[in-house]
From TrEMBL:
Start and end residues of each Flavodoxin-like domain: 5-190
SUPFAM superfamilies with a match to the protein in the record: Flavoproteins
Cellular-component GO terms for this entry: membrane
Transmembrane segments: none
Source organism (scientific name): Streptomyces wuyuanensis
Record protein name field: NAD(P)H dehydrogenase (Quinone)
GO molecular function: FMN binding; NAD(P)H dehydrogenase (quinone) activity
Organism superkingdom: Bacteria
Family (UniProt): Belongs to the WrbA family.
Stored InterPro entries: Flavodoxin/NO_synth, Flavoprotein-like_sf, Flavoprotein_WrbA-like, FMN_Rdtase-like_dom
Pfam families named in the record: FMN_red
Length: 200
């Protein structure tokens, strides 16, 4: 059986958006049906306009559908992405996660595989801590965390982060090696989700 994968992310200036698209491509390559969704922007226009790259990204991704709670009900597996904000996930993604109390109570996200990806400006600027912070919620959901580990050499090509694909945004747009690792992460998530569905 093919899996249904929801790739849900927040991105201000495009790095995490690039990773999200690559994760989605990888899941599709593994035969999954994929929903690529951005969470709502919460920042005021004045903050967005103060950073031309942020405004440009908001305009460029207007057509990406906005995540709803239905996406979590629909999917068999989740890939969640956020930029690093002081070593933590962005408030925009956190706000979305904080609307899932009702679904959590019903066990909607329980037993489903989930994974995370991120981008900090600096290679050591908090990528791992952001993913671990994201995974706190997934533990509470009762999801099955499917981090890439070192299960494929492409992980090393992207800097060797076993917690999830990460991209130091200060180095420019994600390199092909990083996108390859993100595709692998999506493919692996979809493959494991399909396997779990077959067993249920
Ligand atoms: C409020 C704020 C906090 C940030 N905190 C960190 C940080 O702790 N470490 C870091 O390396 N970069 C930090 N950054 C930079 C972003 O994580 C980085 O630019 C990232 O690549 C943005 O991803 P995006 O292009 O998908 O929005 C911060 C940016 C903002 C606006």
């Amino acid at each position: 059986m093919s899996a249904k994968v929801a790739v849900i992310y927040y991105s201000s200036t495009g790095n995490v958006h690039q990773l999200a698209k690559a994760v989605a491509e990888g899941a599709e390559k593994a035969g999954a049906e994929v929903r690529l969704r951005r969470v709502p922007e919460l920042a005021p226009d004045a903050a967005i306009d103060a950073n031309p790259a942020w405004r440009e990204h908001v305009e460029a991704t207007k057509d990406v559908e906005v995540a709803t709670l239905d996406d979590l009900e629909w999917a068999d597996a989740y890939a969640l992405g956020s930029p690093t904000r002081f070593g933590n996930i962005a408030a925009q993604l956190k706000q979305y996660l904080d609307t899932t109390g009702g679904l959590w109570q019903q066990g909607v996200m329980a037993d489903k595989p989930a994974t995370g990806f991120t981008s900090a400006h600096n290679a050591n600027g908090g990528n791992e801590s952001t993913l671990l912070a994201l995974y706190n919620t997934l533990h509470h959901w009762g999801s099955i965390i499917v981090s890439p580990g070192y299960t494929n050499p492409v992980v090393y090509g992207a800097g060797g982060n076993p917690y999830g694909t990460s991209h130091p945004g200060g180095a420019g747009a994600p390199a092909d090696e990083t996108l390859e690792a993100a595709r692998y992460q999506g493919e692996r998530l979809a493959r494991i989700a399909a396997r779990l569905s077959d067993e249920s």
